């Protein structure tokens, strides 16, 4: 099973935070709303085997801070990303379903389907610029 695939070394169960984050991010990829964007079973198995075979990093006093920053970055990136493209948005818009999308991706979606990509409920094509999100993205990336 999964536990045997990942937890087969001495000290099994004593995972570093960074390794847990990588497995968590893979799990999040597996439950994406768009089925076509999910990794296949063979890819998942290959990536899990790579996690298992990776040598553990040396522990340092800076590790918890770094992993916390990585987790915070991942959470922030997910809030700034379009649920259709999974990329940080350039032109965020709010659709009638209340979700924010990258304009070109939601427009493409609505040309072929009159339903929300998030809820699968009927939805019109009215879009409103999400200036707050655009400001957050601009602020985030101007500081880098």
Automatic annotation (TrEMBL):
<protein>
    <recommendedName>
        <fullName>U-box domain-containing protein</fullName>
    </recommendedName>
</protein>
<dbReference type="GO" id="GO:0016567">
    <property type="term" value="P:protein ubiquitination"/>
</dbReference>
<dbReference type="InterPro" id="IPR003613">
    <property type="entry name" value="Ubox_domain"/>
</dbReference>
<dbReference type="GO" id="GO:0004842">
    <property type="term" value="F:ubiquitin-protein transferase activity"/>
</dbReference>
<dbReference type="InterPro" id="IPR013083">
    <property type="entry name" value="Znf_RING/FYVE/PHD"/>
</dbReference>
<feature type="domain" description="U-box">
    <location>
        <begin position="75"/>
        <end position="144"/>
    </location>
</feature>
<dbReference type="Pfam" id="PF04564">
    <property type="entry name" value="U-box"/>
</dbReference>
<dbReference type="InterPro" id="IPR052085">
    <property type="entry name" value="WD-SAM-U-box"/>
</dbReference>
């Amino acid at each position: 099973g999964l536990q045997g695939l990942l937890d087969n070394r001495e000290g099994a169960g004593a995972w570093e935070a960074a390794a847990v984050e990588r497995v968590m991010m893979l799990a999040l990829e597996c439950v994406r709303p768009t089925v076509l964007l999910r990794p296949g079973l063979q890819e998942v198995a290959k990536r899990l085997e790579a996690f298992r075979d990776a040598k553990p990093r040396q522990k340092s006093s800076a590790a918890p801070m770094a992993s916390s920053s990585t987790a915070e970055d991942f959470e922030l990136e997910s809030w700034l990303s379009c649920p259709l493209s999974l990329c940080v948005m350039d032109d965020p818009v709010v659709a009638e379903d209340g979700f924010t999308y990258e304009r070109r991706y939601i427009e493409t979606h609505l040309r072929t389907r009159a339903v929300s990509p998030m809820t699968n409920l009927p939805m019109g094509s009215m879009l409103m610029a999400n200036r707050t999100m655009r400001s957050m993205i601009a602020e985030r990336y101007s500081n880098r």
